[in-house]
């Protein structure tokens, strides 16, 4: 499939999830394989893209619950990440922060509290329905230091060397051109700027048959690549100090099958020299 076809499938999936929230038919929004099971209780790397329990989608186990207080319900219900990249981003008051694939905006709002009035948070997402939800959530919160831009993370609508910290939560695995994502991230970061990512990665490769299952790609499964390849791409575009901070087995939410490598939710940090 072409890159644009993959984008279309991914956009359709996340557009449908955002619309389901509006229509109150959101049952099990999950970035991972359309399943909801998870037993993780950690707020570090988590193998959960979808909350366990009554309110699937609250992702309560991804974050320290106290962090979620005061966020609009629609922001927490649309939380589709696979970890908490904000808590390891070491954000400072006044920072400019960029969230790649911001969805309903949960990580943007958490970051906004940390960077304060003098800071600025930009969320970029290619799905118009998600952007609409994120902007409505921003209005509910009165978060004046947050803005959401429509765009693809492979061609960011963001100026060169204008960002202190890039975050991303369960998104880069969805990109058909991960090297362009990292190249763009590098371009927009200031010198010394940092990256803090949660994402699905593998140890090993999917079989070509599984890799071709585009619905599973859109569900954050078959677009995932080997963690060595992932960090290798970051290195190739110029990032240094690349660290896999933690890694949680994701087999409970992405059931193993023939041709599937081991799948993890990992948190990865790096720096632009
Ligand atoms: C699994 S959700 C994660 C959303 C959010 N980061 C969170 O933690 O809740 C993936 C999001 O990334 C967006 N996305 C996927 N691929 C993208 C791309 N190539 N460019 C921009 N946005 C993308 C989708 O529209 C969707 O909102």
Describe, in plain words, how this protein is organized in 3D.
The chain is of the alpha/beta class. It has one domain: Vaccinia Virus protein VP39 (Rossmann fold, 3-Layer(aba) Sandwich), CATH 3.40.50. 31% of the residues lie in helices and 21% in strands. It contains 9 helices and 7 strands, in the order αααβαβαββαβαααββ. Strands 3-2-1-4-5-7-6 form a 7-stranded mixed sheet, with helices on both faces. α5 (128-141) links the parallel β2 and β3. α6 packs across α9. It is globular and about 50 Å long. 51% of the residues are buried. The model is unreliable at 32-48 and 50-58 (pLDDT under 50). S-adenosylmethionine binds next to α1 and α4. The site of S-adenosylmethionine has 26 residues, from α1 and α4.
């Amino acid at each position: 499939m072409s890159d644009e076809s993959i984008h279309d499938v991914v956009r359709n999936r996340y557009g449908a999830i955002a619309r389901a929230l509006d229509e109150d038919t959101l049952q099990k929004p999950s970035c991972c394989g359309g399943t909801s099971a998870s037993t993780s209780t950690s707020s570090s790397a988590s193998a959960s893209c979808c909350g366990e329990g009554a309110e699937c989608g609250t992702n309560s186990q991804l974050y320290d619950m106290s962090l979620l207080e005061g966020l609009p319900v629609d922001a927490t219900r649309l939380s589709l990440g696979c970890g908490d990249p904000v808590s390891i981003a070491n954000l400072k008051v006044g920072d400019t922060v960029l969230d790649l694939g911001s969805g309903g905006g949960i990580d943007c709002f958490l970051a906004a509290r940390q960077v304060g009035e003098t800071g600025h948070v930009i969320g970029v997402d290619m799905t118009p329905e998600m952007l609409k939800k994120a902007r409505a959530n921003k209005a509910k919160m009165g978060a004046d230091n947050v803005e959401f831009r429509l765009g693809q993370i492979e061609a960011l609508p963001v100026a060169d060397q204008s960002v202190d910290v890039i975050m991303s939560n369960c998104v880069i695995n969805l990109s058909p051109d991960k090297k362009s994502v990292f190249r763009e991230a590098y371009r927009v970061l200031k010198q010394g700027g940092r990256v803090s990512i949660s994402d699905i990665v593998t140890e090993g490769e999917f079989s070509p048959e599984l890799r071709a299952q585009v619905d599973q790609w859109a569900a954050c499964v078959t677009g995932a690549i080997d963690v060595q390849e992932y960090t290798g791409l970051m290195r190739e575009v110029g990032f240094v100090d690349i660290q896999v901070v933690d890694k949680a087995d994701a087999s409970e939410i992405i059931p193993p099958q023939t041709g599937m490598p081991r799948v993890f939710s990992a948190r990865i940090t790096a720096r632009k020299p």
